[in-house]
Write a structure and sequence with these properties.
The chain is mainly alpha-helical. It has nine helices and five strands. Strand 4 and strand 5 form a beta hairpin. The chain is elongated and about 135 Å long.
Length: 299
Protein backbone atom coordinates (compact mmCIF):
# COMPACT_ATOMS: atom_id res chain seq x y z
CA UNK A 1 0.00 0.00 0.00
CA UNK A 2 1.35 3.37 -0.99
CA UNK A 3 0.54 6.67 0.60
CA UNK A 4 1.61 9.75 -1.37
CA UNK A 5 0.57 13.25 -0.33
CA UNK A 6 1.81 16.70 -1.21
CA UNK A 7 2.87 18.82 1.76
CA UNK A 8 3.37 22.52 2.20
CA UNK A 9 6.97 23.79 1.84
CA UNK A 10 8.95 22.96 4.96
CA UNK A 11 6.00 21.31 6.72
CA UNK A 12 6.23 17.67 5.45
CA UNK A 13 7.97 14.98 7.46
CA UNK A 14 10.62 14.53 4.77
CA UNK A 15 10.10 17.76 2.83
CA UNK A 16 12.21 20.85 3.07
CA UNK A 17 11.48 22.11 -0.46
CA UNK A 18 8.41 22.45 -2.64
CA UNK A 19 9.33 19.45 -4.76
CA UNK A 20 9.73 16.84 -2.02
CA UNK A 21 6.91 14.37 -1.35
CA UNK A 22 5.90 12.03 1.48
CA UNK A 23 6.22 8.48 0.12
CA UNK A 24 5.57 5.53 2.50
CA UNK A 25 4.96 1.92 1.40
CA UNK A 26 3.28 0.10 4.29
CA UNK A 27 3.93 -3.31 2.74
CA UNK A 28 7.68 -3.00 3.29
CA UNK A 29 7.30 -2.53 7.05
CA UNK A 30 6.99 -5.39 9.50
CA UNK A 31 4.61 -3.50 11.78
CA UNK A 32 3.79 -0.13 13.32
CA UNK A 33 6.99 -0.02 15.36
CA UNK A 34 9.02 -0.54 12.20
CA UNK A 35 7.21 2.36 10.49
CA UNK A 36 7.53 4.62 13.52
CA UNK A 37 11.22 3.86 13.90
CA UNK A 38 11.70 4.56 10.19
CA UNK A 39 10.11 8.02 10.55
CA UNK A 40 12.30 8.83 13.56
CA UNK A 41 15.65 7.59 12.15
CA UNK A 42 15.10 9.11 8.71
CA UNK A 43 14.68 12.59 10.18
CA UNK A 44 17.53 12.16 12.72
CA UNK A 45 15.17 12.64 15.65
CA UNK A 46 16.39 11.84 19.14
CA UNK A 47 14.45 8.79 20.28
CA UNK A 48 14.50 10.07 23.89
CA UNK A 49 12.95 13.39 22.83
CA UNK A 50 10.34 12.52 20.22
CA UNK A 51 8.26 15.45 18.90
CA UNK A 52 5.07 13.53 19.46
CA UNK A 53 2.85 16.01 17.61
CA UNK A 54 4.95 15.90 14.44
CA UNK A 55 5.41 12.13 14.49
CA UNK A 56 1.71 11.56 15.13
CA UNK A 57 0.79 13.72 12.16
CA UNK A 58 3.21 11.90 9.88
CA UNK A 59 2.08 8.48 11.10
CA UNK A 60 -1.59 9.30 10.51
CA UNK A 61 -0.77 10.65 7.06
CA UNK A 62 1.13 7.44 6.21
CA UNK A 63 -1.75 5.11 7.10
CA UNK A 64 -4.45 7.10 5.30
CA UNK A 65 -4.07 4.94 2.22
CA UNK A 66 -4.97 1.72 4.04
CA UNK A 67 -7.49 -0.22 1.97
CA UNK A 68 -10.78 -0.75 3.88
CA UNK A 69 -10.71 -4.40 2.77
CA UNK A 70 -7.36 -4.87 4.51
CA UNK A 71 -8.29 -3.61 7.96
CA UNK A 72 -7.63 -7.05 9.49
CA UNK A 73 -3.96 -6.78 8.52
CA UNK A 74 -3.75 -3.08 9.49
CA UNK A 75 -5.13 -3.47 13.02
CA UNK A 76 -1.70 -2.97 14.62
CA UNK A 77 -1.14 0.26 12.69
CA UNK A 78 -4.49 1.62 13.86
CA UNK A 79 -3.70 0.66 17.45
CA UNK A 80 -0.36 2.51 17.27
CA UNK A 81 -2.12 5.57 15.82
CA UNK A 82 -4.51 5.55 18.79
CA UNK A 83 -1.55 5.25 21.17
CA UNK A 84 0.19 8.25 19.59
CA UNK A 85 -2.98 10.35 19.78
CA UNK A 86 -3.38 9.40 23.45
CA UNK A 87 0.24 10.35 24.25
CA UNK A 88 -0.21 13.64 22.39
CA UNK A 89 -3.32 14.42 24.41
CA UNK A 90 -1.57 13.57 27.69
CA UNK A 91 1.28 15.95 26.84
CA UNK A 92 -1.12 18.79 26.01
CA UNK A 93 -3.18 18.42 29.16
CA UNK A 94 -1.81 19.85 32.42
CA UNK A 95 -0.44 17.34 34.94
CA UNK A 96 -0.53 17.59 38.71
CA UNK A 97 1.12 15.77 41.61
CA UNK A 98 3.20 12.67 40.92
CA UNK A 99 2.22 12.59 37.23
CA UNK A 100 4.00 15.88 36.61
CA UNK A 101 7.46 14.25 36.52
CA UNK A 102 6.40 11.27 34.40
CA UNK A 103 6.83 11.46 30.64
CA UNK A 104 3.97 9.79 28.66
CA UNK A 105 6.49 8.87 25.96
CA UNK A 106 8.58 6.61 28.25
CA UNK A 107 6.75 3.38 27.42
CA UNK A 108 6.82 4.14 23.70
CA UNK A 109 10.58 4.86 23.81
CA UNK A 110 11.22 1.56 25.60
CA UNK A 111 9.27 -0.41 22.99
CA UNK A 112 11.09 1.35 20.14
CA UNK A 113 14.53 0.60 21.59
CA UNK A 114 13.70 -3.05 22.19
CA UNK A 115 12.33 -3.43 18.67
CA UNK A 116 15.39 -1.74 17.18
CA UNK A 117 17.71 -4.08 19.07
CA UNK A 118 15.78 -7.18 17.99
CA UNK A 119 15.67 -5.96 14.37
CA UNK A 120 19.43 -5.41 14.36
CA UNK A 121 20.09 -8.90 15.71
CA UNK A 122 17.74 -10.37 13.10
CA UNK A 123 19.48 -8.55 10.29
CA UNK A 124 22.90 -9.72 11.48
CA UNK A 125 21.71 -13.32 11.65
CA UNK A 126 20.19 -13.10 8.18
CA UNK A 127 23.41 -11.59 6.83
CA UNK A 128 25.49 -14.33 8.45
CA UNK A 129 23.18 -17.00 7.02
CA UNK A 130 23.44 -15.50 3.54
CA UNK A 131 27.23 -15.30 3.77
CA UNK A 132 27.44 -18.89 4.95
CA UNK A 133 25.17 -20.11 2.13
CA UNK A 134 27.54 -18.53 -0.36
CA UNK A 135 30.55 -20.34 1.05
CA UNK A 136 29.09 -23.77 1.81
CA UNK A 137 26.14 -25.85 0.68
CA UNK A 138 23.08 -26.52 2.81
CA UNK A 139 23.72 -28.92 5.69
CA UNK A 140 27.48 -28.36 5.66
CA UNK A 141 29.12 -28.90 9.03
CA UNK A 142 32.61 -27.45 9.40
CA UNK A 143 35.20 -30.02 10.50
CA UNK A 144 36.43 -29.83 14.03
CA UNK A 145 40.08 -28.99 14.49
CA UNK A 146 42.16 -31.99 15.47
CA UNK A 147 44.15 -31.71 18.67
CA UNK A 148 47.87 -31.55 18.31
CA UNK A 149 49.36 -34.88 19.31
CA UNK A 150 52.79 -34.28 20.71
CA UNK A 151 55.27 -37.12 20.69
CA UNK A 152 56.14 -37.97 24.28
CA UNK A 153 59.25 -39.93 25.10
CA UNK A 154 58.72 -43.42 26.47
CA UNK A 155 59.54 -43.32 30.16
CA UNK A 156 58.46 -46.85 31.03
CA UNK A 157 61.12 -49.52 31.40
CA UNK A 158 60.96 -53.18 30.54
CA UNK A 159 60.85 -54.15 34.20
CA UNK A 160 57.61 -52.19 34.68
CA UNK A 161 56.09 -53.76 31.56
CA UNK A 162 57.03 -57.23 32.81
CA UNK A 163 55.50 -56.60 36.24
CA UNK A 164 52.31 -55.30 34.61
CA UNK A 165 52.11 -58.43 32.43
CA UNK A 166 52.44 -60.64 35.50
CA UNK A 167 49.54 -58.80 37.13
CA UNK A 168 47.15 -59.61 34.28
CA UNK A 169 44.63 -62.20 35.42
CA UNK A 170 43.71 -64.98 32.99
CA UNK A 171 40.02 -65.60 32.32
CA UNK A 172 38.28 -68.31 34.28
CA UNK A 173 38.29 -71.50 32.15
CA UNK A 174 35.10 -72.77 33.77
CA UNK A 175 31.89 -72.82 31.79
CA UNK A 176 30.24 -69.44 32.35
CA UNK A 177 26.81 -70.66 31.27
CA UNK A 178 24.10 -70.49 33.90
CA UNK A 179 21.88 -73.48 34.42
CA UNK A 180 18.55 -73.26 36.15
CA UNK A 181 17.46 -76.41 37.96
CA UNK A 182 13.73 -76.87 38.03
CA UNK A 183 12.38 -78.21 41.28
CA UNK A 184 10.53 -81.50 40.82
CA UNK A 185 6.77 -81.38 41.14
CA UNK A 186 5.20 -84.26 43.06
CA UNK A 187 1.95 -85.72 41.76
CA UNK A 188 0.73 -86.19 45.33
CA UNK A 189 0.86 -82.43 45.85
CA UNK A 190 -1.18 -81.84 42.70
CA UNK A 191 -3.73 -84.49 43.71
CA UNK A 192 -4.09 -82.84 47.11
CA UNK A 193 -4.52 -79.45 45.42
CA UNK A 194 -7.25 -80.69 43.09
CA UNK A 195 -9.11 -82.47 45.90
CA UNK A 196 -8.94 -79.35 48.06
CA UNK A 197 -10.24 -77.07 45.31
CA UNK A 198 -13.08 -79.44 44.40
CA UNK A 199 -14.08 -79.65 48.04
CA UNK A 200 -14.74 -75.91 47.89
CA UNK A 201 -16.52 -75.80 44.52
CA UNK A 202 -18.35 -78.39 42.44
CA UNK A 203 -16.44 -77.58 39.22
CA UNK A 204 -13.29 -75.71 38.31
CA UNK A 205 -11.34 -74.75 35.19
CA UNK A 206 -8.02 -76.46 34.59
CA UNK A 207 -6.25 -73.11 34.00
CA UNK A 208 -7.23 -71.87 37.46
CA UNK A 209 -5.23 -74.69 39.00
CA UNK A 210 -2.12 -73.11 37.42
CA UNK A 211 -2.83 -69.53 38.48
CA UNK A 212 0.24 -67.70 39.73
CA UNK A 213 2.72 -70.10 38.11
CA UNK A 214 4.84 -68.79 35.26
CA UNK A 215 8.22 -69.00 33.65
CA UNK A 216 10.05 -72.24 33.13
CA UNK A 217 8.06 -74.08 35.81
CA UNK A 218 4.67 -73.53 34.14
CA UNK A 219 5.07 -76.43 31.67
CA UNK A 220 6.05 -78.97 34.34
CA UNK A 221 3.25 -77.90 36.67
CA UNK A 222 0.77 -78.15 33.81
CA UNK A 223 1.86 -81.69 32.90
CA UNK A 224 1.79 -82.90 36.50
CA UNK A 225 -1.62 -81.32 37.11
CA UNK A 226 -3.00 -83.10 34.03
CA UNK A 227 -1.56 -86.43 35.18
CA UNK A 228 -3.02 -85.88 38.65
CA UNK A 229 -6.42 -85.18 37.09
CA UNK A 230 -6.26 -88.39 35.04
CA UNK A 231 -5.28 -90.35 38.15
CA UNK A 232 -8.26 -88.98 40.06
CA UNK A 233 -10.46 -89.80 37.08
CA UNK A 234 -9.19 -93.38 37.19
CA UNK A 235 -10.08 -93.45 40.87
CA UNK A 236 -13.55 -92.16 39.91
CA UNK A 237 -13.16 -89.17 42.24
CA UNK A 238 -13.76 -86.57 39.52
CA UNK A 239 -14.82 -86.21 35.89
CA UNK A 240 -13.13 -84.26 33.10
CA UNK A 241 -15.08 -82.59 30.30
CA UNK A 242 -13.99 -80.69 27.20
CA UNK A 243 -16.54 -79.14 24.85
CA UNK A 244 -14.32 -79.02 21.75
CA UNK A 245 -10.70 -79.79 20.84
CA UNK A 246 -8.19 -77.35 22.36
CA UNK A 247 -10.90 -75.75 24.50
CA UNK A 248 -10.79 -75.30 28.27
CA UNK A 249 -10.78 -78.40 30.45
CA UNK A 250 -13.36 -78.52 33.25
CA UNK A 251 -12.95 -80.71 36.32
CA UNK A 252 -16.17 -81.82 38.06
CA UNK A 253 -16.54 -83.34 41.49
CA UNK A 254 -17.99 -86.84 41.14
CA UNK A 255 -20.64 -88.09 43.55
CA UNK A 256 -19.93 -91.54 45.03
CA UNK A 257 -22.40 -94.36 44.15
CA UNK A 258 -21.55 -97.61 46.10
CA UNK A 259 -23.45 -99.99 43.79
CA UNK A 260 -22.01 -98.46 40.64
CA UNK A 261 -18.51 -98.53 42.14
CA UNK A 262 -18.89 -102.19 43.10
CA UNK A 263 -20.04 -103.15 39.59
CA UNK A 264 -17.18 -101.24 37.98
CA UNK A 265 -14.64 -102.83 40.35
CA UNK A 266 -16.04 -106.30 39.53
CA UNK A 267 -15.81 -105.64 35.80
CA UNK A 268 -12.25 -104.37 36.17
CA UNK A 269 -11.29 -107.43 38.24
CA UNK A 270 -12.81 -109.82 35.66
CA UNK A 271 -11.00 -108.04 32.86
CA UNK A 272 -7.70 -108.19 34.70
CA UNK A 273 -8.21 -111.94 35.42
CA UNK A 274 -8.96 -112.67 31.75
CA UNK A 275 -5.88 -110.80 30.66
CA UNK A 276 -3.78 -112.72 33.18
CA UNK A 277 -5.09 -116.09 31.85
CA UNK A 278 -4.38 -115.13 28.25
CA UNK A 279 -0.86 -114.08 29.14
CA UNK A 280 -0.28 -117.35 31.03
CA UNK A 281 -1.42 -119.45 28.07
CA UNK A 282 0.87 -117.62 25.71
CA UNK A 283 3.82 -118.08 28.05
CA UNK A 284 3.23 -121.89 28.76
CA UNK A 285 5.61 -124.31 26.72
CA UNK A 286 4.10 -126.85 24.32
CA UNK A 287 3.92 -130.47 25.72
CA UNK A 288 5.49 -133.35 23.61
CA UNK A 289 3.17 -135.84 21.85
CA UNK A 290 2.42 -139.26 23.50
CA UNK A 291 3.93 -142.61 22.10
CA UNK A 292 0.52 -143.83 20.89
CA UNK A 293 0.08 -140.75 18.83
CA UNK A 294 3.52 -141.20 17.28
CA UNK A 295 2.71 -144.84 16.37
CA UNK A 296 -0.52 -143.92 14.69
CA UNK A 297 1.27 -141.31 12.65
CA UNK A 298 3.93 -143.87 11.53
CA UNK A 299 1.26 -146.34 10.28
Amino acid sequence: MNATAERAPGSGPFATTDSELLLVDLDRFQGPLDLLLHLIRTQDIDVFDIPISKITRQFLEAIKSIDPDGLDNAGEFLEMAATLVRIKAQMLLPRHGDDEDEDPRTELVRRLLEYEQIREVTQRLASAELERSRRASKGFVPPRPRPNLEELPLETGWEEVFQAALGVELPDPRDPSHRVTVRPVAMADKIALIVQRLSEVAEIEFSKLLAGIGGIEAKMHGVMTLLASLELTRRRELAIRQVSPFSELWLYRREVDPEEDAAIEAAIAASEEAEARAAAQEAAPELPDSPDAQEVESQ
